[in-house]
Amino acid sequence: MVLIYFILLTFAMLVTAPLISRRLVFAYVPEERMEYNPLHGLSRSNRKLVYCAFGLLYVMMAIAVVNRPEYLPDYQMYEHLYRTTLGNKSLRDMEISFTWISMLSPTFMVLLTVYALLSVGTHMWAILRNAPNIWISLGLYMTFQFVLHDMVQMRSGVALGLMLISLRYIVERKWWIYFPLVMLALFFHNSAVVLIPLYFLKAKSLNRYVWGSILGAAVLLHMAGMEFGIFSKFIPIGIVETYLENYMGRDMAANSIDIDLHRILEIIAIFVMIIRIKYLQSHYPLAVICVKMLVFSQIFYLLFSDIAVIQIRMGELFGSAGILGYAMFPMVSRKHYYVLLIYPLLLMLTQIGGAYYLLTAFKP
Q1: 16, 59, 278, 291: which has the highest count of C-beta atoms within 10 A?
Q2: What is the per-residue pLDDT for 91?
Q3: 70 Cβ neighbours under 8 A, 6+ residues apart
Q4: Could you tell me which of 130, 125, 132 has the C-alpha nearest to residue 161?
Q5: By C-alpha distance, which of 181, 206, 222 is closest to 271?
Q6: What is the rounded CA–CA span in Å between residue 352 and residue 12?
Q7: Residue 326 reports pLDDT greater than 60
Q8: Rounded to whole angstroms, how far apart are CA atoms 271 and 352?
């Protein structure tokens, strides 16, 4: 599986390499009041070639996801849940979409195929429609989240793909499209409920001092050992208090998240993008909402380590916007664009270790 994964990754990066062009990335001109399209700078014939390349990648990636090894995390859990559903047993705390798809799937492989097509498809469509730099976004997606969400956490994978599609409708203020997409995401994973209030954030303006201070405070509080869980006892709502305290101190595999090289790279990039937000927004209309989501992600990662379920789920949910957000980092300077490509390449290299771990660590 590792060999297949790296072949897919290499093929994807080589086929889409021409899309890294500075002329294409900076082709969007907001003064012309045109709808944002990452392929705006390409001719119609070249766009068709891109669509064909993505279509081929989509099929290859979906096949890889369906035929993933049984030893990968969550594989046997989902197989057990599938057989439980066929036995007409209720699934506690499971979204109804899983029950419906299971009942309509004659075999477990069909279930995996449906989720693979939906998860990979929504991510690929979001990149084609919303990415500031298609090549970088595809690389950031494939070097980790493709493995984590499409091969392991397939329910949340679909929800996160729908979230990435929906972000442009916050900026365009198209609530009649945004909220149905959020409801559909919620249909696949309960954590998508936090996307509902996201629509009411200011998506076209960002106070650099306020958001920079929020991120800086989160880093300093983390370094000082401050965590949100210690305040849970002051929450007056009994249900919330019990929910939080049940997760405090729980030993979970991912509860060792700290400020490592990868997180340092992310935090530095967010600070730089906050400083250059006006320039970024002039070339990428989703810049503000992406940066705000990345700040939320860091807050959850840094300050909720003693409530692991919130740290992981919310950190990953908001952090998935990094497929779009970190891809715009080289756009902070048109003059130094090609030099700044070093940053996303470093980010991909730090991510790929996580993908390799998921693909090999549980092999018997």
Answers
A1: 291
A2: 59
A3: 76, 79
A4: 125
A5: 206
A6: 15
A7: yes
A8: 24
Amino acid at 336: H
Task: Decide: 113 and 101 in contact? Cβ < 8 Å.
Answer: no
Residues of the chain with pLDDT > 90, as a percent, come to: 56
Comparing CA positions, the residue from 317, 329, 352 lying closest to residue 140 is 352
Single-letter amino acid code for the residue at 56: L
Q: Which amino acid is at 36?
A: Y
- CA-wise closest residue to 135 among 249, 42, 35, 15: 15
Cβ-in-10-Å burial (0-12, 13-18, 19+) of 104 comes to: exposed
Q: Provide the residue count of the chain.
A: 364
pLDDT at 32 over 70: no
| Single-letter residue type at 175 | W
Given pLDDT bands bounded at 50, 70 and 90, which one contains residue 204?
Answer: confident
- Separation CA 162–CA 177 (nearest Å): 11
Looking at residue 201, the DSSP 8-state letter turns out to be S
Q: Which residues contact 16 (CB under 8 A, 6 or more apart)?
A: 50, 53, 134, 135, 138
Q: pLDDT tens digits, residue range 289-308?
A: 999 999 999 998 888 877 77
How many other C-beta atoms can be found within 10 angstroms of the C-beta atom of residue 76?
11
The pLDDT, as a whole number, for residue 163 is 95
Residue with tokens 């709808």: 35
Hey, what are 320's tokens?
A: 């998935």
In whole angstroms, give the CA distance from residue 182 to residue 196. 7
Query: What is the rounded CA–CA span in Å between residue 167 and residue 124?
Result: 14
CA-based R_g, the chain, Å? 20
Helix (H) or strand (E) holding 265: helix 261-275
DSSP summary character for residue 36: P
Task: Please tell me the number of Cα atoms within 13 Å of 339 on its side-chain side.
Answer: 5
pTM for the whole thing? 0.89
Distance, CA of 107 to CA of 88 (rounded, Å) = 15
Furthest C-alpha separation in the chain? 62
- Angle at which helix 96-104 crosses helix 108-130, to 10 degrees, equals 120
Tokens of 127: 């990149």
Task: Convert the pLDDT of each residue in 137-146 to its tens digit.
Answer: 999 999 999 9
